[in-house]
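Dear all,

This email documents one entry for the complex benchmark we are building for the journal club exercise. For each entry we list the sequence lines for every component of the assembly. Then comes the predicted three-dimensional structure of the complex as a token string, followed by one or two observations. Please use this as the template for your own entries, and keep the labels exactly as they appear.
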Amino acid sequence: MREFAAWLQATSLSVTVQSAGWIIPTVQSIHILMIGVVFVSSLMITLRVTRSVRADEPFAAVWSRFAPWMWGGLVLMALTGSVLIIGEPVREVTALSFWLKMALIAISVTTIVIFGRTVRPDTRTSATAEFSVGRRAVAVATVVLWLAIIFLGRAIAYDVEVWGSLSLHA
Amino acid sequence: MEIPSIVRSIEASGAGEWMRMSLKAMPVVEAIHVLTTAIVFGTILIIDLRLLGFPNTRRPFTRISDELTRYTWGAFLISAVTGLLMFAANASTYYGNTAFRIKMLALLVAGVNMAVFELVTRRGVAAWDKDVAPAPAARFAGAASIVIWVTVIVVARWIGFTKGYNYDIPADLDLNLQFPAQ
């Protein structure tokens, strides 16, 4: 993986991203803006499951309001994240936080997709139906996963400080 | 550049010292700052878009706003505290940084925009709370807020790339380092 990262870092595409000083800060800014969109969209869906917001609306209305923003934001995050990897591949792939983050994103996205598809029709369309305790726990867990993902994203820049001897940099 | 004494005091404070000396303080505080800023931006964006009439005007503005404001303020409070901690770590460097100054100015403009909206525009909310296009002043406040908060986040990210580090080397430090033989 290090060899791949070193090769990628030497490609002209990567050199362009590295040498144009504005690209990485701009792309990181878009990435952070999208954290706001994705996290809050996911939070709104979870808060509806726990009936903390929009309890007067059916789950389906809240899902159709926020899920497209969540998925759209995730696509933009994947694109901007890819540019960041191309620009700084060694920094990314040699960070334990990066790999943990990727794993948690996979788990979180899979969980949300399955959750969205398996809501019972009556719970989906009723404004008064309650979600089971298990489903509420899963919804809250996705928010906790996003918190961990956001933390790990920032921790990529501090792999040794955060992970000590566990860091892949060490 | 003349650094005001309050900036020096913040930098010399126990919090500033802790931020500089602790290995884990900066990453943890930064991560919380990014997270809470994201919550502030995301929740405000929902309210701002509703002020622009998006996605529709069926849900009353006041209901959307009242439900979200506590999350926005809670996150903003944590964001301000973590931001102050980061500032304390290198206060004099931040003080002279142009991106940091633009960010503070943008935050001030965001505050003024919000105050005008809350104290003036929102008084007439009954006329446009539901099923009609929000008043022009409300739409302006929403559009301005989106632009201002995007600016805050973009210039904030720029701080990290432009502030550099304060590498003042003590005059009595002996730099005749002895490196082991290769």
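Observations: Chain B has one domain: 5-162. Chain B has seven helices and no strands.
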